[in-house]
Amino acid sequence: MFELDRVQKSYPGVVALEDLSLRFARGRVCALIGSSGSGKSTVLRLLTGLVRPDRGKVRVDGKPLTSASLQSARLRLGYVIQEGGLFPHLTAQGNLALQPRYLGWTQTRIAGRCAELAELVRLPVSVMQRYPAELSGGQRQRVALMRALMTDPPALLLDEPLGALDPIVRHELQSQLRTIFETLDKTVILVTHDVAEAAWLASRLVLMHDGRIVQDGTLADLQRDPASAYVRRFLDSARRLPEASA
Ligand code: ADP
Ligand code: MG
């Protein structure tokens, strides 16, 4: 469904992606993991067309992403940017209504869908009338997630969508997301720092470092047959609870 073909992307003084090729199959969940600055967000930005590659091709459904195809490609995408990206001058409900309104949904249908998703992400309906500045970080993230799910798009690009949530809500939402991914048959690319979260939600893990792919496989592949010492270190960095002393 999505493809990066030998993509190069540089910013002044930094190579964000180095000759990177990746394909994402329809209906599958893939997690992009790796330390900060490894190029994960850049991969998502390229797939949305927000960023153009210096070299190489970006394809969606086999077709190159061009300025002409961008609009229709975006409508088929739910995208949560790393900081949530809510419009500050609109209430939560106003943010959620933007795309549905553009698509001609009625007010009743929009309100119904908002209520459905608020329940899914465990957000009180009263929160919907507040502006982003009046929400906690975790509430903003849940609204951003709701916005991505509003029109039930076939593909979801999620950039650390649960990063600012407290552990209990995060755990709950991880379970709900897994159900959403499985039952709705979505193509999902999820960026996360958290290996446990990645392995819980995705069958395929792509570990990135310095703009390159270090390893691409299942958690078992990475554990049993790490491609480099970095893979081992990355996996070992996930802490377990220490044993309580007697
Ligand atoms: P990640 O999401 O894995 O933390 P990013 O894809 O955001 O990494 O960034 C990869 C590299 O590109 C980093 O070194 C980052 O500083 C740099 N970078 C990303 N976007 C920009 C930008 N707009 N301008 C300059 N440098 C950028
Ligand atoms: Mg990022």
From TrEMBL:
One GO term in the molecular function aspect is: ATP hydrolysis activity
Biological process GO terms, please?
Answer: quaternary ammonium group transport
Coiled-coil portions? none
Looking up Pfam families in the UniProt record yields: ABC_tran (PF00005)
Q: Which residues form the ABC transporter domain?
A: 2-235
Alphabetized UniProt keyword annotations = ATP-binding, Nucleotide-binding, Transport
- InterPro entries in the record: AAA+_ATPase, ABC_SmlMolc_Importer, ABC_transporter-like_ATP-bd, P-loop_NTPase
Statement: the UniProt record of this protein carries the keyword Ubl conjugation: no
Q: Gene3D superfamilies annotated for this entry?
A: P-loop containing nucleotide triphosphate hydrolases (3.40.50.300)
Asked if the Swiss-Prot or TrEMBL record annotates the protein with the keyword Metal-binding, the reply is no
PANTHER family, alphabetized? SPERMIDINE/PUTRESCINE IMPORT ATP-BINDING PROTEIN POTA, SPERMIDINE_PUTRESCINE IMPORT ATP-BINDING PROTEIN POTA
Protein name in the entry: ATP-binding cassette domain-containing protein
What organism is this sequence from? Oleiagrimonas citrea
